[in-house]
Amino acid sequence: MRLLIIGLVTLLFFSCKDAKKEYQRMEGEGAELAMDASLIPGKEIVKNECYICHSPVASEENMIAPPMVAVKWHYIEEQTSKEEFTEALLNWLNDPQPEKVKMHGAVRKFGIMPYQPYTEEEVKDIASYLYETEIPQPEWYEAHRKNKHQQGKGMGKGKGKGKGKNATIGEEEDFFFPRAEFYLENGASISAAAQGALGKKLIKAIQEKGPEGAISFCKVNASGITDSVAIMNNVRINRVSDKPRNQENKASDEEQGYIIAFKRQLENQVEIRPILKEMANDEVYYYSPITTNAMCLQCHGTPDKEIQQPVQLALKNYYPEDKAVGYVDGEVRGMWKIQFVKE
User: Fold this and answer.
1) 3-state class of 122 per DSSP?
2) Model confidence at 82, in pLDDT bands (50, 70, 90)?
3) Could you tell me which residues come within 8 angstroms of residue 296 by beta carbon, excluding any fewer than 6 positions away?
4) Structural domain of residue 226, as residue ranges?
């Protein structure tokens, strides 16, 4: 399986002030480095944000961005100073442009990341953590790296794996996704058609039965409406969410990472780009966000504010495990998941 994120993923990088770091080896089996406290802010950002996409444990097939160790490998050579590394990350994150690309294969596979408004101090924190520590890597990564890059990479200055490369980066042929534009264009068209079909029927149901009547309508008819669009286009269509109303539509852990990325793009007012995921069994998945509007809030807004008592009672009756409330206008509520058979 190969994965293409069309600019979606957030390379959630970096920040902390320079200071001399001291390490102390802990006693016992499974010993870890006791790090300087000034590295902890960067570690927390990497662990809680960066690893959502740049996972150190996901299989190669399930990666939605290059692992963080690969970012480090490309940016830090044997002679690279911490200041140079930090400056390189700042330069990229402040204005990610094609002419600045260092990871050509990753861009070919995942697309160029959108601009992320991180502060200079945040960039320094994560850069400091990455530079000073040996970060974990996926089990498959070392074999992948040796297979994709020329030999000649050393261990650097004793600061951990990922420094001292002399090789030319040979990733230009990596991860080429045939007919990506075809799937992007058709995915956008099909998701728009499904959204339009649902919206039209839902408006009619609200007009005839009120918002509470639309709840029962959706329960019975929503999947049939999207299925009809799917059949016409020879695809499968699902809606998934991190806060599902119907628990059958709960997003997987991987899909929740996509939703987080879509939310950040929307919050940062950058271009929202879909995701393509190519499977080994000749299937391609297209993901794009579903956002709320004023009509949605009648059933997905705040109880006793947008969601009136009759609607709340209907939701409790039809969806006792409902999580899909508390949204505001223009918020990512979930995403379309369209499954193609690869042509």
Assistant:
1) helix
2) very high
3) 327, 333
4) 180-341
Query: What pTM value is reported for the model?
Result: 0.57
Please indicate, yes or no, whether residues 334 and 188 belong to a single structural domain of this protein.
Answer: yes
Q: Give residue for tokens 């639309």.
A: 214
| Co-location of 137 and 247 in the same domain | no
Query: Is residue 133 located within the same domain as residue 15?
Result: yes
Q: Which residue is associated with the tokens 């006693």?
A: 27
| More confident site: 234 or 146 | 234
Q: Is 239 left (phi over 0), alpha (psi -120 to 50) or beta?
A: beta
Same domain for 99 and 207, yes or no, is no
Count Cβ atoms within 10 A of the Cβ of residue 58 and give its class: 0-12 exposed, 13-18 middle, 19 or more buried: buried
Spatial contact of 106 and 65, defined as CB atoms under 8 Å apart: yes
State the CB neighbour count (10 A cutoff) for residue 95: 9
Burial label for 84, CB within 10 Å (0-12, 13-18, 19+), is: middle
CATH number at residue 90: 1.10.760
